[in-house]
Inverse folding.
């Protein structure tokens, strides 16, 4: 019996050994890790910017989450400073907004449910933005976190639980730097590059390990990286621990914002610039973090015309996926914890579109051609060879010319969600095996058209 147990135990340990890979603290090693497969297959996530900046919810045309930075601007004419003075008086400090961050209507299950209805499969919440205020009770941010001041709630814990309950992946954004953290400012003044790393050792590293150990996020989305090289941030130390030792080592995915010069070079998926839409195939997994309005954090003065409509957003989503990217769409809830209604409507629109067209998105791969024009884009299902043409304008003429698919007399086509009873037919080129087909659509009235972006599914073509 003892022998049997020890044999089984050693078999078990062997299995563990086979699966456990050791990553060391250098970029060559970190970059060699394969991307956990869930991330590429899900394609769509929701970014959430939520913090003390959600209280003033004001921006001078930039990002509302930069309010404190703008407030400290040396220029007395600065519009944030002016607006702040008019509304709160010159003696009202940014920190005084924290008690007003009450989140009294925040219901994590409601947020998770709206996100789930959008068809998104992962969430990335700002655990800490550049202001340093944390949405969990961080010991390194005493008196400046959501349990000590503001809602007196652990927002990260509540949302993590609600999101995981619906079977979605929960992720956390974390700013490496803090504009006004005294330890960071002191490190920065020690030299360039800094000769001491007190902020990293006593604040950043304990916080990163804390959020991983406490909440087991499936995404760590670093930002605020650009002032220092990754050596200062000790990014590879953290990532080697994350990939080798943490409880999420097999599932966690990270981005590329780990230090000056890391973007599109080091880490996990690439993010380029904010709202990056390269419109060509990128041969490394990447992500487009888009906004619905302009600001990531809630800006209560953003007018209707600043918001992109669902049609355009679904077009950008299609372009992103065609080129191998994931779409991370941002919402900015208000300080009461309500997701603005127009943002909710956008999420529901995307969810409706995905219910009809999800097979062209989830688990899809880029096709050999990404686009024919700026309004015809492709994806493919590699397992069964189906090709999807995502078309932005309805072919009112009744004909759609696709230049690149090679079809034959057995090929089939349909328009997903098309209500017309009559079939679409394929007109082949005059000689066999030539690329290029014409789709002949039956007459249909606009109420028969599917919503937003029109997805033609081609079977038996290549
Ligand atoms: C990085 O780590 C790997 C694995 O330990 C090692 O083989 C390699 O020499 C290291 N590279 C550098 C540049 O230190
Ligand atoms: C206000 O100051 C900030 C910080 O210096 C700056 O980024 C922003 O552009 C300024 N706003 C205006 C309208 O000048
Ligand atoms: C601020 O605005 C006033 C009035 O428009 C102008 O006279 C002054 O030069 C401005 N100051 C700066 C620093 O731009
Ligand atoms: C991480 O795991 C490796 C391999 O099991 C081990 O050698 C190393 O000591 C661990 N590091 C930490 C910080 O636990
Ligand atoms: C969406 O916005 C685009 C660009 O502003 C506009 O051309 C289009 O008509 C809008 N679509 C709807 C349905 O409002
Ligand atoms: C892709 O094709 C495979 C094989 O037919 C199928 O099981 C899978 O459901 C398809 N993917 C999607 C998202 O429809
Ligand atoms: C693909 O789309 C991009 C962005 O709209 C455009 O610049 C490019 O010309 C398109 N490619 C083709 C082959 O039309």
């Amino acid at each position: 019996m003892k022998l049997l147990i020890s044999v089984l135990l050693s078999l078990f340990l062997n299995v563990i050994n086979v699966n456990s890979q050791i990553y060391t603290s250098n970029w060559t090693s970190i970059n060699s890790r394969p991307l956990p497969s869930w991330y590429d297959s899900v394609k769509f996530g929701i970014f959430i910017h939520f913090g003390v900046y959600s209280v003033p919810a004001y921006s001078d045309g930039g990002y509302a989450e930069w309010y404190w930075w703008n407030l400290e601007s040396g220029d007395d004419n600065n519009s944030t400073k002016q607006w702040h003075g008019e509304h709160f008086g010159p003696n009202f400090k940014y920190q005084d907004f924290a008690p007003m961050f009450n989140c009294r209507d925040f219901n994590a299950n409601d947020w998770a449910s709206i996100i789930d209805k959008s068809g998104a499969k992962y969430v990335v919440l700002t655990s800490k933005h550049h202001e340093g205020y944390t949405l969990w009770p961080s010991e390194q941010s005493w008196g400046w976190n959501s349990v000590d001041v503001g809602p007196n709630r652990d927002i990260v814990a509540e949302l993590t639980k609600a999101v995981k309950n619906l079977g979605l992946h929960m992720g956390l954004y974390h700013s490496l730097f803090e504009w006004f953290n005294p330890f960071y400012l002191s490190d920065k003044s020690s030299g360039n590059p800094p000769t001491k790393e007190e902020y990293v050792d006593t604040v950043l590293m304990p916080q990163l390990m804390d959020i991983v150990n406490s909440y087991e996020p499936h995404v760590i989305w670093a930002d605020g990286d650009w002032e220092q090289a990754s050596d200062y941030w000790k990014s590879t130390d953290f990532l080697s621990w994350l990939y080798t030792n943490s409880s999420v080592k097999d599932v966690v995915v990270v981005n590329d914002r780990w230090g000056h010069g890391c973007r599109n070079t080091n880490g996990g998926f690439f993010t380029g610039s904010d709202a990056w839409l390269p419109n060509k195939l990128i041969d490394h997994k990447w992500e487009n973090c888009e906004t619905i309005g302009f600001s990531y954090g809630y800006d209560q003065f953003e007018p209707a015309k600043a918001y992109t409509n669902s049609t355009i957003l679904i077009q950008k989503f299609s372009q992103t996926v065609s080129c191998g990217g994931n779409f991370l769409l941002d919402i900015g809830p208000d300080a009461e914890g309500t997701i603005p209604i127009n943002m909710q409507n956008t999420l529901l629109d995307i969810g409706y579109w995905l219910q009809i067209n999800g097979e062209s998105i989830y688990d899809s791969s880029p096709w050999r051609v990404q686009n024919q024009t700026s309004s015809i884009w492709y994806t493919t299902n590699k397992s069964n060879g189906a090709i999807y043409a995502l078309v932005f304008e309805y072919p009112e003429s009744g004909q759609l010319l696709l230049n690149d698919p090679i079809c034959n007399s057995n090929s089939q086509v349909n328009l997903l969600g098309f209500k017309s009873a009559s079939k679409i037919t394929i007109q082949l080129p005059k000689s066999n095996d030539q690329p290029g087909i014409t789709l002949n659509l039956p007459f249909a009235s606009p109420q028969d058209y599917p919503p937003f972006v029109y997805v033609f599914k081609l079977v038996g073509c290549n």
About this structure: Residues 309, 311-312 surround 2-acetamido-2-deoxy-beta-D-glucopyranose (ligand 5) (CB under 6 Å). DSSP finds 13 helices and 15 strands in the chain.
